[in-house]
Amino acid sequence: MTESCRSSPSPRHFAVIGGDLRMTHLCKRLTEAGYTVSALGCGLDCLPDAESRSAPEGEGALRICSSLKGATDGAEALILPLPASKDGVTVHCPRDPTCTVALREIAELMARTPRLLLFGGRLPKEFMDTAEKSGVAKDRISDYYDSEVLQLRNAYLTAEAALMTAMELTDCAIRGVSVGVLGYGRIGKFLSRLLHGLGAEVTVCARREESLFEAAAQGCHPLLMTESASMGGLSPLCRGHSVLFNTIPARVLPRDLLMGLEKNTLLIDLASAPFGVSDRDVREATAEIGLRYLRAPSLPGSYAPRDAGRIVAECILEELSRRDTLSESSQNAYENGGNNS
User: Fold this and answer.
1) Residue 5: pLDDT band with limits 50, 70, 90
2) Are strands 62-64 and 77-79 parallel, antiparallel or unpaired?
3) Which of 12, 71, 53, 59 lies closest to 31 in space, CA to CA?
4) Domain-embedded: residue 220
């Protein structure tokens, strides 16, 4: 039988493992809020103020550790990055290549430390299955990427970063340029509005009629993506669009469309795997028509790491506050029930 942690008090000591520059700013936000943070594989030594230290009055302490055991000793909650893993086997530690922490180790640690909570971003299904088989209660693990608020805030940062990237890679102003945005989810909506606000001629490509209606109401040109045509109904993008943004994590841009694009078209792929195009098709289009292709996932971590890291920290703190409220309500209900018996 698995245990539950709902009656546990909120943690005051976090262990933070891996991640990009976002996690550095997450650590700083937590210490500012008075928490103790032990960091492993975050590359915090790259910052001049990130030495292991005692905190000023009112702040928590920050420790830089060299092992999982050292980082988690005394910790009540463990935080993994976004994404938690790139290979499904180890924690993503891009800023410290010497740090290797297996997800299996994390699952084992959770199993033998009954009161330890875990927060991670886009946790692999295999890890979740392993933890469950080890008897770890589901309510001890929280995937903060499931938060709609976090995804919306991340989507805006991604859209702003994508716009900046396009401005850096083109030799003209955005105003008056014809651009295409594939997908009208969170990122597509923010990106389309930013582009339209700067005076770009924006074509939004989507499969849902209601999405296209909304895009048209925002001043964009709607283009229906179909399943039957070889180009998915996207052939109009081949004419007059100097920049294309893909936000759809599926192979929506076939080879014949890439080959039909105008010379030196810039294609910025914002989607996660499997991305919008295949590597082979990109190589051929690059060689034959001069396609300029940039695969740019996880832009918030490089464009606005401070904001992105603080967004994750606030999401975790809000989840802990919610847990405290539920625990207090359960305790009050228990006490009232006992008094009535």
Assistant:
1) very low
2) unpaired
3) 59
4) yes
Q: Is residue 4 part of a domain?
A: no
Domain span at residue 135? 13-146+302-332
DSSP code of residue 40: E
> The tokens of 292 are what?
């300029």
Residue that has been written with the tokens 């929506």 in this structure: 252
Q: How far is 191 from 203, CA to CA, in rounded Å?
A: 11
What are the φ/ψ torsions at residue 260 (nearest 5 degrees)? -90, -5
List 118's β-bridge partners, or say none: 78, 141
CB 258 within 8 A of CB 276: no
**164 shares a domain with 124:** no
- For 118-138, the pLDDT digits (tens) are 999 999 999 999 999 999 999
Q: Does one domain contain both 160 and 253?
A: yes
- Give me the chain's average pLDDT, please: 89
> What's the CATH number where 289 sits?
3.40.50.720
Could you tell me whether strands 117-120 and 13-17 are parallel, antiparallel, or unpaired per DSSP bridges? unpaired
Q: Please check whether residue 241 lies inside any domain of the structure.
A: yes
Residue 323 included in any domain: yes
Cβ neighbours around 192 below 10 Å, total = 26
In a shared domain, residues 104 and 191: no
Same domain, 172 and 274: yes
Nearest partner of 169 among 292, 283, 302, 303, judged by Cα: 292
Give CA–CA dist 316/142, Å, rounded: 9
> What angle, rounded to 10 degrees, do the helices at 186-197 and 148-169 form?
40
What is the pTM assigned to this prediction?
Answer: 0.86
